[in-house]
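Closing statement on the S-adenosylmethionine sub-project.
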Amino acid sequence: MSSLSLILKPLSIPTFISDNPNIKTFIFQRNIPPPCKSHCHTERGHQFDVGDTFFRSESATARDLGVLSAALYRNTTGSLRVLDAMCGCGIRSLRYLAEAEADFVVANDANENTRDIILGNLSRVASGSEEGKRWEVNHLPATRLLAECYLRKDYFDLIDVDSFGSGSSYLRVALDAVKLGGLLYITSTDGLSSGGHRPQQSLAAYGAYVRPLPYSNEIGLRMLIGGAVREASVLGYHVVPLFSYYSYHGPVFRVLLQVKRGKSLSSRYYGFISYCNRCGNTRAFSWNELGEISCPCSTNVKRSIVVSGPLWTGPLHSAPHLTEMMSLADQWGWFGDEEGKNLEKLLKQMIDESDPKLPVGYLNADEIASRAKLNLPPLSVIMNSLHEGGYAVSRSHIAPNAIKTDCPMVVCVKIVKHLQQAAEMSSCH
Ligand SMILES: C[S@@+](CC[C@H](N)C(=O)[O-])C[C@H]1O[C@@H](n2cnc3c(N)ncnc32)[C@H](O)[C@@H]1O
């Protein structure tokens, strides 16, 4: 220990910050949370330092969703070991420890320069210390860390992979290292592939040939889940999406999957999606029907139908899981402020989207308007009419200016025209 730190020892001033590594060690050994040093942020009441690490405050919602699910998992199973494979400044690890009360968290980031920032932030969790073995910090490439965990049979309840790009190269190793019944929180930021602009890339990453469809951001989620379904199936597992979340900041596609024993490559929820440019009809179908793709409206199938797949065609969320997330967030008092209201709205929309009658995709208001050749009334008015007509309908959390419905586009266009006529007639009277 340096003479300087010896001099400072009796003072043990928590507000003292020094670049001298000996003094820093002294502070950590006493488990006194050092104050935030630079680039301070606060999220859900936790103050933390981001330094020069990669951090986006816009990802707070994705972190909220992960923490709620982790806490629910812990409440159900009684334990929670988390591997935060790409932790940046360690904010997720901190929140899994403090809010979800994880028993143990591995905070990993390949970039060694993040170490001091992560250590500083995790030491803010009152009962945590590296020595106390409630958390540890690593700097390995995520694939290597996950493979080593698997080889040691050190399985985790929750593996969070907050990667850049398609994220597909982490799927197999993450599936290997997660417990059966455990959770995988995976990411893609590959908006070009979901838009259908790089079908070769989506084929390489997820085994799905994706072409441009009007609900590309939902396709991004289905592509990611489909890739996980395929990888899980190789290992004899299947995955169930507990929620799927799209954020236009990035864009970022995030999916929380529960991993279970038994294969799931059945045609029920894994197949192809076709969209007819002529009538706007979307259809999900299995590989058995690949030879007979058609649309009732179409005379020239080849020209007017776009097909993508294979992808996940099943539910994007589990409504019971989302309902539990809602009540936990409410119990934690999260819905009080502006940010909380947005989260509450998001969870409600996701629950509405989980109606099993709702098909794949959504109808964009602009597309309905251009097919009807008129300005649309508010979406809430259209949704009421669709409800009255006996159709299932909800908003989409993915596209604010769209609706999900089992009403075919042609019928929807007729309803909109009818609404317009009714509005014109009532204005004449
Ligand atoms: C999107 S950021 C993580 C943000 C963080 N999870 C959060 O919520 O603030 C991705 C992080 O992964 C790290 N990274 C990139 N490639 C990696 C790899 N192959 N293995 C582990 N970490 C990696 C980067 O250094 C970066 O900090």
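The mean pLDDT is 88. With this model delivered, the sub-project is considered complete and its resources will be redirected to Aim 3.
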